Each structure stands twice: as C-alpha cells, then as structure tokens.
C-alpha cells in the first residue's frame, strides 16, 4: 500500500525516509493546537463529528455547554428556532478547529474534510441538515479557498420512507418518500496560493502517482470499488473512514516528508496511512479511551511494514484535558 510499495523507490531509501519521520498523537482539544507553529503543516485530512447525527450529540454537549442548554430548551419549547440554534452552535464549535487549522497550515497547504449531511426527525418534522454547505461557509469566512469537492458514494443503498429505513407498503406511491443520503463529501480547501517547489524536487518526484491513480483519484465520484465494505466494531464506534480514503488524499495533496494533521483522529487511520506513505503526522483526539485502539492499529502497521515504527510515535496527554 502507498509509498512503501511505490515502484522505483529503493528499499533502503524507504527505510531511511520511514526512520526520519515523526508522528505525534496528542490527547487534547484541537480547538487549540499550541504544539504547532503557524505555517508548519502542509496538509490536514480529517473527519469531524457530524452535527445533528445522534451518536455525536453528547460529545457536542460536553464540548460546549451552550449546546446542552439548547437541547434542554428544545425539550421545553419544541421550537424550530431552537433546532436552528443547536445546529448553528455545533458548526461554530467545529469552526474553531477550522480556524486553528488555517493558522497552522503553510501557504498553499490543503485541507480535506470528510463530512456527511444529516437527516433527522425532530418534533415530528423530518429534515435535512446540509453539513457540507455549512462547513464551506465557515471555511470561506476564515479565509480558505474552496476547491472542487469529491462525492464519496457509500454502499448503503436502501431508500427511506418518512425517514425510516425502508419504503414499507407506500414506497411506490408519490409524493412523500425521501431520497436516500448515500454520498458523503470530501471537501477540499487551500490556504493562500499554490505551493512552490524547486525544479525536479526529489521528494515531489518520489511522490508521483500513476496515470490510473490520477484518473481515478481526481474524478469527482469515488465509489472505492474493491475496498472492504464491511465495518468492524471499532470503525462503527469511531465512525472511522477506510484507510483508502486517507491514503488517496495524502498522496494527492502532500509530498513525502510533509507534515499531515488530523485534528479529529479517532482510531488513528490518518496516522497509520501517513506512516505508510512516508509523511510525518500529528493527530489530536479528545477521547482517551481510544488509546488502546490507536496503539493496536499502529502495531498492525508495524507488523505489515516489518519495520520498527513505534519509537517514532510520541503519544502525549495534555494534563488535565482528558
Ligand atoms: C468521526 S471521528 C474520526 C474518525 C477517524 N477519521 C478514524 O478513521 O477513526 C471524530 C473524532 O473526533 C474526536 N473529537 C471531537 N472533537 C474533538 C476536538 N475538539 N479535539 C480533538 N478530538 C475531537 C472524537 O472523539 C472522535 O473520535
């Protein structure tokens, strides 16, 4: 996979590159990334908690007590305006991380954000929460330049009726059924102008992709054919993305030796792929309970690479934060 198996790269140079990289996993809140200097990161790849998806409600509430208050208010007033306040507050909460990412990215640095829209029935009203467009708005306010995005077509294809998983008996009768959300977005942004490299920059040339990879990766719809479509318990709990999503993005938008940031690390997929792709990495995660899962993932990587990598991975817990 990735860099390690890239043709033309000699085994010894792979070893040297792998050993010169650094990986940091920080258990703490990525709304403040004090460990990173302004302009020190070349690529951010991430998938945040999705606003208005029930599995992330508690985390948003503990991250911002105002959101918890709005939910309590909603129980009392049931008001549409309160739903809006919850949704807005969740996006303002994520936007603190987008702003901090903007600070740490270099000029020409890229940000790739995997996000799904949400559908939800509240007060017996079924509606769409278009998270992707809210994130584009927030990122543009911060100063990011929006680039054409990718639609990741997921394997779930069951249509829904009144927000439920099946059409039931009325599924063939217009007009009350809903279109199924079977795509997620991979939003792409740049900070500033294009990155510049010296002529024949060796790291850039060693990071080259093939024509087949270019044709597939730079097309707008990814169905990730041939990728494992089943999801194990850890992936379900952390809403992990497949390694192939991270691998494509890292190889499309960074070069060997770059520093890749994931401010919502989850089970550590981005770190694993950065190691395999010859990039350095830094990941932030709020939930310390994910440490054993992250470690297990990295140990698997070490076995697959047949190279000792754990000595290059620093795991840091900010005191008092988690
Ligand atoms: C959708 S999951 C990421 C899954 C990840 N892409 C993977 O493959 O495992 C989002 C993660 O962000 C973490 N998180 C949420 N808010 C955070 C914050 N402000 N700082 C750091 N981590 C945060 C959550 O605990 C959760 O593990």
Number of strands: 13
Strand order of the largest sheet: 10-6-9-3-2-11-12-1-13
Could you name the CATH topology of the domain at 41-257? Rossmann fold
Give the end-to-end Cα distance, rounded to a whole number of Å.
Answer: 34 Å
Give Rg in angstroms. Answer: 21 Å
Strand percentage lies at 15-25%
Fraction of helical residues: 25-40%
Order of helices and strands: HEEHHHEEEHEEEEHHEHHEHEHE
Average pLDDT across residues?
Answer: 89
Report the top-level CATH class of the domain at 41-257: Alpha Beta
Structural class based on helices, strands and sheet pairing:
alpha/beta
Catalogue the unreliable spans.
1-10
Give a quick account of the main beta sheet: strands, pairing sense, barrel closure.
Answer: 9 strands, mixed
Number of helices: 11
Overall, the morphology is globular
List each distinct ligand once: S-adenosylmethionine
What does this structure look like?
With 322 residues, the chain is an alpha/beta fold. The chain has a domain at 41-257: Vaccinia Virus protein VP39 (Rossmann fold, 3-Layer(aba) Sandwich). It has eleven helices and 13 strands. It has helices at 11-20, 57-63, 65-77, 80-104, 131-142, 202-206, 211-217, 233-238, 243-253, 269-276, 291-305; strands at 23-27, 41-46, 105-115, 118-122, 125-129, 145-153, 160-161, 177-178, 183-190, 221-222, 259-262, 280-285, 313-317. Helix 4 packs across helix 5 (131-142) and helix 10 (269-276) runs parallel beside helix 11 (291-305). It is globular. Residues 1-10 have low confidence and may be disordered. It binds S-adenosylmethionine. Residues 29-31, 47-49, 59, 97, 238-241, 263-264, 266-267, 269, 284-287, 290 line the site of S-adenosylmethionine (SAM). S-adenosylmethionine is lined by residues 29-31, 47-49, 59, 97, 238-241, 263-264, 266-267, 269, 284-287, 290.
